[in-house]
Protein: Cullin-4A
Organism: Esox lucius
Amino acid sequence: DSTNTSQQRPSCSLPIMAEDIRQDKKANFSALTEHNNNGVTRTSGLASNKTGASKKLVIKNFKDRPKLAETYTEDTWLKLRDAVGAIQNSTSIKYNLEELYQVRMENKQECLTLSYCSPAVENLCSYKVSPTLYKQLRQLCEEHVQAQIHQFREYPSRASVLSFLKRMNRCWQDHCRQTIMIRSIFLFLDRTYVLQNSLLPSIWDTGLELFRTHIVSDGAVQKRTVDGILEQIERERNGETVDRSLLRSLLGMLSDLQVYKESFEERFLTDTNRLYAAEGQRLMQERDVPEYLHHVARRLEEENDRVISYLDQSTQKPLISNVEKQLLGEHMAAILQKGLSILLDGNRVTELALLYQLFSKVKGGLPTLLQHWRDYIKSFGGEIVGTPEKDKDMVQDLLDFKDKMDNVTQGCFNRNESFINAMKEAFEAFINKRPNKPAELIAKYVDSKLRAGNKEATEEELERILDKIMIIFRFIHGKDVFEAFYKKDLAKRLLVGKSASVDAEKSMLSKLKHECGAAFTSKLEGMFKDMELSKDVMIQFKQYTQNQSEPSQIELTVNILTMGYWPTYTPMEVHLPPEMVKLQEVFKLFYLGKHSGRKLQWQPTLGHAVLRTEFKEGKKELQVSLFQTLVLLMFNEAEEFSVEEIKSATGIEEGELRRTLQSLACGKARVLNKNPRGKDVEDGDRFNFNNEFRHKLFRIKINQIQMKETVEEQVSTTERVFQDRQYQIDAAVVRIMKMRKTLSHNLLVSELYNQLKFPVKPGDLKKRIESLIDRDYMERDKESPNQYHYVA
């Protein structure tokens, strides 16, 4: 046990079995221990009589610290220097590695020889030679690196860029390999002395610092290296094949040497900007938009692959940002102006999806795309609505256009809410640029789908069509126009029995009620109620007529319509046959007997009949309108009549009569002959019964031309809507003034816009206010003309 513990290594124990030998029993085993000459105490195996007893190897400190030979430090450094030189020059080391790593130390004064091997560097470090050793090693490495710069400075200028880069890469790889090997020899120095001195770089960092200082930081060498790398990247961008592993190694070198950003990245991004700015300008002129978009996508993919293959990860964000800016950001408006309409017109969903994807990456890209998308819808839709020649197909075109735009938002624009809302706003804007007409045509379109004989769609398909119609219907401001035309068409379908399906009718009614409220559909529901009540009344009437003493040969069916629910029909006095007049009086007597105080008004324009007719071919039944019936019945009395004679006998209005005669004599089922022949009915024409008429069917439906809407009817319906709107404006003004008592003109107009559900111009509101003032519902303030007072 040495007392000079500060100069000696600490002792260590190596337990061999699980049990320890108690320290207080040490004296009992003194006779059983053996000491060797290097201070190792070995416990004898005789210390315990029991099998498996624990053994303990105790290594004790030297009593005195061994001394180094006088030339040991110098000799050892010479060997280490030779070894480092051999590594740097890639030659064989003169000394055996074991000899290099294991140098024997001998204390001649005490004749104590170390019997175990101690590493040379560790020995030097243990005897405080570390500072000198580190300094010598650094100087040795620096001299070697300084010698390497000459090969690059003197490298032939005419030599290829690639050979220079390969030389630089080989030098760098050699330097890294040499530094690793040198560090492995001086590992103890690196992990003790260097680690304890925070200001000193490690051996590896020293190697990097020397390479950076003496080779890479050399202006000419660095410029030639970076120029070469940039040239190789440019070649690759132009489609040539380059050595990516070489580029990865060289750029890794710049990154490891911490000069990547200032020496390479800044120049690389500048060159990238310049390249893609020129490329964007050129290709925008040369290529169409779909091709250009695919090119941009390919370029972005290439640059991302470049980052993965050899560029530093930190370059990715600024690199991709530069490419997107130069190829997309600078040309957003031009791309959209040149190609968006082409893509949408051609329904090129792949390119539209790519367009959205690319624009979503650029600052301000999606708002710009959104605006052009909105403008396109307004423009395209405006053409559909604003072209009177296309009115026949307007609604179908609108439905197709809406489906197309929905598919684009769903499949290409990632269901972006902003784009969906912009589409709705655009539809609402263009569809109301032409007041009333879209609403009227939508009503007619629904009529064509709900009318009997429409075999285009099954019930499920019809339901889907109605749902799509309701989407277009939502965009319309003047819903009262739709209601007026829809009500008129519904009346025809119900009265003439032309409705395809009661379920479909009620489904449409339910959709309108859900969309516009119960007030909107109350009259339409009343029409259905009237038809159901009429069926009950007719059952009772049949029982009533059967009890009559003289039952009629004519079967009469009457629909009782509540005047407030149904469209307004212009009364027309016609001359009915006596049998019909008598039957009308019988029904009138029956009905008023049950419902006293009511007034019945017959509407012959809506009547229809089935006539049994005899031709040479045989008996037929003709399904005709009441006007057609009156004309045909005349031919029971005589064989030929002129237009004037028919008009005088029937009392039918001239225009209606001409259309009726045209349907009977000029249509597909010509039960009358016109003389002279022709498509139009003239004043001097004469008509006779066509006894030679032939048809494959027994019951023939003759086209009821009077059921088709005339221009006068359209104008009349529109005028009624306008009149109803005036009443609604008057009622709203009185309602607001009654509640507020006094109100300024601007506030009154604002309130009216909030309450009215149809579009109205300020001038029209002003006229209605003036009208109410004239009728003493309200008055102007005497001092302030813009102030109104309610008159109780």
Q: What stands out?
A: Confidence is low (pLDDT under 50) at residues 1-51, 101-118. Residues 711-740 form the longest helix (30 residues).
